[in-house]
Amino acid sequence: MRCQLAAACLLLASSAAPTDLTLDGVVYVSRHGVRAPYGPIVDAEGTAAANDDWSAWTSKAAKNAEDYGMDADAFAAQELTPHGMALMPLLGSYVADRWRALGLDVGGDWAVFADDSTRDLQTAALWLEGAGRGDAPVRVGNASLPNLIPVLSDSVLYGAGADATEEQTLGLFGGDVAALTAAYEDDMADIGRALGFADDAPICAALGVADDCAIATLPYKFTGIYWQGMFTCPLYYAQFFAEAWAGKESEIPNFKASSLGRFPLVSADFWTSDHLSGRSRSVDAFVGTRARGTLTLKRR
């Protein structure tokens, strides 16, 4: 939800604007709400298992659709969880209240766009419900709308063939994956114990580790897939399970004190904040209001 946090910072900054400026409109960009998880990687090609299948990593059962309070189809499609559906109206209400406090007429014209996945449409509709604008239509706003292609297309934003190279990617943190692994090896061991990770787990053979297999000994591989963080490595695999257990801290010893959850380069989260999304890069939910004709701050 980093885009939402950024938007909140923008709103707070707007409240401290010079007194000769008025808020004329707002553009609000958001990720989707809390969704059902994806499954863990199960081979060297980066294939993900079904979201309730952790058998390549542990003999323990993963949470399934029933555990999440969802039907099987919604769970498999990574739609919003019941928690996610309850959260979005609260968020919409909060943001609308902030806009009113800044003097914006939230009863003005709204243009609302969401990507065509069900979780994004759910997010937009529930957010609007909480904002008191359930009457505003939600339009699909992906590459099917030509005017949005410059916003959504990597090739337009960065030029053709602009994907980061391995050298560029590793240069973001110094490039020493072994040092990165060593710095968080104790945290990875905690996760391995909680997971019941065995040195003969199927993932070991799948990733080519024959002896003394542990999460910290799993190999690094540059994939160039940005929604998987551009590369896989021990920290990448560890963060999957740390994220999956984020709401069940008691399962990981000293999880609240662990530095793993605070590390900024937890592969996929560093790049997209949407763990293993497996989707084309896009704006998940886009909400714009036009209170008095423009989307800018202007002087009186």
Strand order of the largest sheet: 2-7-3-4
Provide the β-strand percentage band: 5-15%
Mean pLDDT: 76
Discrete helix count: 13
List segments where confidence is low: pLDDT < 50 over at least 5 consecutive residues. 1-14, 247-300
What is the rounded distance between the termini? 34 Å
Short synopsis of the structure:
With 300 residues, the protein is of the alpha+beta class. The chain is globular.
What do these coordinates show?
The chain has 300 residues and is of the alpha+beta class. Helices cover 36% and strands 10% of the residues. The chain has 13 helices and eight strands. A four-stranded mixed sheet has the order 2-7-3-4. Strands 1-8 form a two-stranded antiparallel ribbon. Strand 3 (109-114), helix 5 and strand 4 (138-140) form a beta-alpha-beta unit. Helix 4 crosses helix 5 and helix 10 crosses helix 12. The two termini are 34 Å apart. Mean pLDDT is 76; it is low at 1-14 and 247-300.
Summarize this structure as a short list of keywords or feature phrases:
four-stranded mixed sheet; 300 residues; single chain; disordered N terminus; alpha+beta; two-stranded antiparallel sheet
Secondary structure layout plus pairing:
Layout: H1 2-15, E1 21-23, E2 25-30, H2 65-68, H3 72-76, H4 82-101, E3 109-114, H5 118-130, E4 138-140, H6 149-152, H7 154-158, H8 166-171, H9 177-183, H10 185-195, H11 202-206, E5 221-222, E6 231-232, H12 234-244, H13 268-271, E7 285-290, E8 297-299
Helix pairs in contact: 4-5, 10-12
